[in-house]
Write a structure and sequence with these properties.
It is a single chain. By secondary structure, the chain is an all-alpha fold. It has ten helices and no strands. Helix 1 crosses helix 2, helix 1 packs across helix 6 and helix 9 packs antiparallel against helix 10. The radius of gyration is 19 Å and the shape is elongated.
């Protein structure tokens, strides 16, 4: 098997193991030993592919950010379909899946990991990319006249990401917001720019 394929397979095996630990036991349980045990590989396997555990965690977060890039393309393409609120609710539900919420906590509390990931002025990794994704989508909706022409899309995106994170992150593990909470939040944040498009 070519080395590149093998490396990718091992990396994905380790990433999936880390995600299972995050879902089952939370960010505090995520250690190199826990990951290799969960992946059913020797402990040295992780250190053969990553310089240290924070390097592994940084790549785990980057992998999640790459998935956000795919989601951003789909969301952008959804501009003009359904309602902006429906599209935003679906996007935020995906952004704040349990693994992403756990990874945001991990990044927030691990200084070394945050330092490896942070680009000056861009905010907390994962949340910063999610904010950019929503701003891009809202820009497309504004161009189509589905929200007010003077809508401050960056501020709207920041409000949606901040409030969405509080809604999803402030819960016990294995629980999600009530089915009405997120739609209510989204409608509240975008109500003004949706109503004013008609004026």
């Amino acid at each position: 098997m070519p080395t590149g394929v093998h490396l990718r397979d091992v990396r994905q095996q380790l990433f999936h193991a880390a995600e299972r630990i995050l879902l089952r036991d939370g960010p505090n349980a995520l250690t190199s030993r826990a990951v290799t045990t969960e992946a059913d590989v020797a402990k040295g396997v992780l250190h053969r592919h990553f310089t240290d555990f924070d390097a592994f965690l940084a790549e785990l977060v980057r992998d999640r950010i790459a998935r956000l890039a795919d989601q951003a393309a789909l969301l952008r393409a959804a501009a003009g379909t359904r309602t902006p609120a429906e599209n935003l609710v679906d996007a935020l539900t995906e952004v704040f899946d349990p693994v992403s919420v756990a990874l945001v906590s991990l990044v927030f509390f691990r200084d070394e990991l945050r330092a490896r990931l942070r680009r000056p002025g861009e905010g907390l990794p994962i949340l910063a990319e999610a904010r950019a994704m929503l701003a891009d989508y809202l820009t497309a909706e504004r161009a189509q006249g589905r929200i007010a022409a003077d809508a401050e899309v960056d501020s709207l995106a920041l409000s949606l990401i901040g409030a969405g994170h509080l809604l999803f992150a402030g819960r016990r593990r294995d629980t999600l917001p009530d089915e009405h909470e997120l739609p209510k939040l989204v409608h509240t944040v975008i109500a003004d720019v949706v109503q004013r498009r008609l004026l």
